[in-house]
Amino acid sequence: MTFKIFRKKCYKLDIYKTWIYACVGITGTNNQMEYKQAPFSSFSNELINLADCLLS
Known about the structure:
Strand content: 35-45%
Strand order of the largest sheet: 1-2-3
Order of helices and strands: EEEH
């Protein structure tokens, strides 16, 4: 999964009925893009984990 980054950090969420796929794009010091991906369940405890992931 890739997307064009216009800022230093970007977040992309694909939301489905039972899953949310999060992708974080970070531009490094050498302007190289790095992507980190993680799936989360749409249940309450996993939504808290998703919020923690996006805040970190």
